[in-house]
Amino acid sequence: MARNSKTPRSNVERADIYQEITDQIIALLEHGVRPWSPSCASGSASLPLRTCGAHYQGINILLLWAQSMARGYANPTWMTFKKALELGGNVKKGERGTRIVYAGSVARKGEVGQANEEDKERRISFLKRFTVFNRQQIEGLPEELFPTPAPVIQNRDHRDPRLDSVFSALGVKIVEKDGGAFYSPSTDTITMPRFESFTSGNAYYATLAHEMSHAVGSSDRLNRETLQKYGTSVAMRAKEEMLVEISASFVCATLGMEPTEREDHAAYLASWLTVLRGEKRAIFQAATAAQAASDFILAAAEAARGQQAA
């Protein structure tokens, strides 16, 4: 039976958005591509931007990074077909857009007949798809409008005082010694290999961004379940490591660094795939938690700079 075009889509149909995007991420991982590890050399490591200059959030960053890496886009700006027209340009013939999502909620009152529920409101979450195009897919715009920035490749040979201050702002103790990198919740301490043991300063600070992303999940900060229950199951550990890798990539992009893929995380790939295949909302939850973690780190650094300037 044909469905009336005005009939609202069912919850099952809306939920398919989660499955569609999860399948995209799974396919990338199966082909050895982590959408949270863009390359600065290609210019794709910048946070994707709206035309207003604000950057996209959470899962949309991963979706746009994935397309930038696949299609070679070096420009960070994206816009809808309508916005391109409003600005005086148009999408080039034959170009395909990239589907991203908008998450929101609407208020609905309780059903009539339910005791004391007629006047109560509840929030109904929804996920809506829409299509955007990269600046490089748009023609007719002035060249000076959203120009493609020259790629900046950071390869620090020495410590960077600015980055040291960013990561010290959170108040987590950082200890450097021989061995691996890890965060200890019981002592609120990050242990890092010595600076000189890294191939570059970028590699050191990218690794520190990862461990700091663990640290903000502590009980007195974001109180993240995946950190609190880290050792209870393989799945919980995989979720925490995945969201922390994503968080570190967001921090690195904001600070002008390139994310570093740690060799020890290759072992998590199978676990990540298992989690994603079993939970179609897992990558959305990871991206949301990663956004919260990176925002926490960067907000602490901004607050510390404000206090120093006062």
From TrEMBL:
Domain named Polyvalent protein metallopeptidase: residues: 162-288
Origin: domain of life: Bacteria
Gene Ontology terms, MF aspect: single-stranded DNA binding
Domain N-terminal: start-end pairs: 16-133
Residue ranges the record marks as coiled coil: none
Xref: InterPro entries: Antirestriction_ArdC (IPR017113), ArdC_N (IPR013610), MPTase-PolyVal (IPR041459)
Keywords: Plasmid
Pfam hit, one: MPTase-PolyVal
The protein, known as: Antirestriction protein
Organism: Sphingomonas sp. JE1
